[in-house]
Each structure stands twice: as C-alpha cells, then as structure tokens.
Amino acid sequence: MDPGLSGLQARLQHTFSDPSLLVRALTHRSFSADHNERLEFLGDSVLNLAVAALLYERLSALPEGDLSRVRANLVKQDTLHQLAVGLDLPELINLGEGEARSGGTRRPSILADALEAVLGAVYLDAGYGPAEALVRRLYETVEINPGMSAAAKDPKTELQELLQGRRLRLPVYRVAGTLGAAHKQTFDVECEVPELGVTERGIGGSRRAGEQAAAAAMLLTLKAKGA
C-alpha cells in the first residue's frame, strides 16, 4: 500500500480489510467516476449519530434543542475541515487537474466531505463500533461545552427544530443537479417536507451550502404560511 495511506491508517488507528474503500473515500468526483460522494452520505449519518451519543453522555443537563445546536457546531464544515487537516488529508486526497490547480486541496468543503467519506469507509469496512470509536478519538481534542448551544443557529438546524416542535418528520434533502466544470461546480439542492407537501430549492458552491440555502428557503415558506 502507498506509504501515505499506511500512515493515514496509523493516524486513524484502523487498518482496512478492504483498502479500496479508503482510496475511494479520498477520491473527489473531479478525479474519477469511482468517487467518494456515496461514502460521504453514509459517513454523515455515522458522524451525527456518534456525536449525538457523545453529547448525550457528556452534557446530561442540556435539553434536546440545545444538544442539537451543540451538535450542529461540532459537525459543521469548519470543524470537520480542521479535523481533516489534522489527519493530513490535504496531502492524500485525489483531485482532477483543474480542481487541484484551483486550490482544491485547501478547500474546506472538499476536505470536510472527504473526512465524512472516511468515516463511511470505516463503517463499511468494520461496522458501527469502530466508526464510532474513530469519531470519539477525533473529537478528543475538540472543546465541547454547553455554551456552544448559544451560537447562532444555521438554517438546517433551525428548520429541524421547527419541524420537531410540530412533531413532523425531518426534511429530506436531494441534489437535484450540478452546474459547471468539476473543479467549479454549484449544487442545486431540493429540501422537502413530505408531510406538508412543500419543496424548496437552494444553490451553493458545495452540497452542504446548497442544503443550507434550501433550508433557508423552506424556513421562509413555512413562516409565510404560518407553519
């Protein structure tokens, strides 16, 4: 195996039974059709569950709404970007030539997505237990405190809390399309609230940004309807 990937496995404290999963997790869509977006989707869910369990243990006095806001701070792009840099992912990620020339190895959205993809790869390789253990190791150096709940809510968190307060299911996000070259894409994302039969869309320079824009549009619509 490539020495760089061997070193990453040592930092992750996980040796892959199927090393191709790790290679795919580090492959951006601009580099290959066998890219990391499906693993990122899986890793996002693993991350949210593992962080939720961690907060449930550490911040036992906080109510659900505050726990959601703390979690949003811990899984946001900036935090994941810092963790990815700490693992030296910028040195290992596979990018197409155009994306690499435009500084893709330093782009927070690409590195945050790659970290989630790595978590998804660990989950597929060994199951939830090792993936959760990895999340806990990654967050050992991240400050976690109740005051984080006072941070301004992002649109996705605000929408989630609005729907939960009305006992409605969480919104569903889908990438409706992408525009532009691989190294300079924009994402057109749909946000649907199935029980209300409402769908809104948002555009962003990354999937995450598109989801936030779609959530913001949905908030405006629901508030206008008095929901």
Description:
The protein has 227 residues and is mostly helical. It has two domains: 1-151, Ribonuclease iii, N-terminal Endonuclease Domain, Chain A (Orthogonal Bundle); 152-227, 2-Layer Sandwich (Double Stranded RNA Binding Domain), CATH 3.30.160.20. 56% of the residues lie in helices and 10% in strands. The chain contains ten helices and three strands, in the order αααααααααβββα. It is globular, with a radius of gyration of 18 Å. It starts with a helix and ends with a helix. The model has no long low-confidence stretch (mean pLDDT 90).
Distance between the termini: 55 Å
Total domain count:
2
The level of helicity is 55-70%
Count of individual beta strands: 3
What is the strand content? 5-15%
Oligomer: single chain
Strand order of the largest sheet: 1-2-3
How would you state the average pLDDT, rounded?
90
The biggest beta sheet, please? 3 strands, antiparallel
Descriptive terms for the model:
mainly alpha; 227 residues; globular; Ribonuclease iii, N-terminal Endonuclease Domain, Chain A; single chain; 3 strands
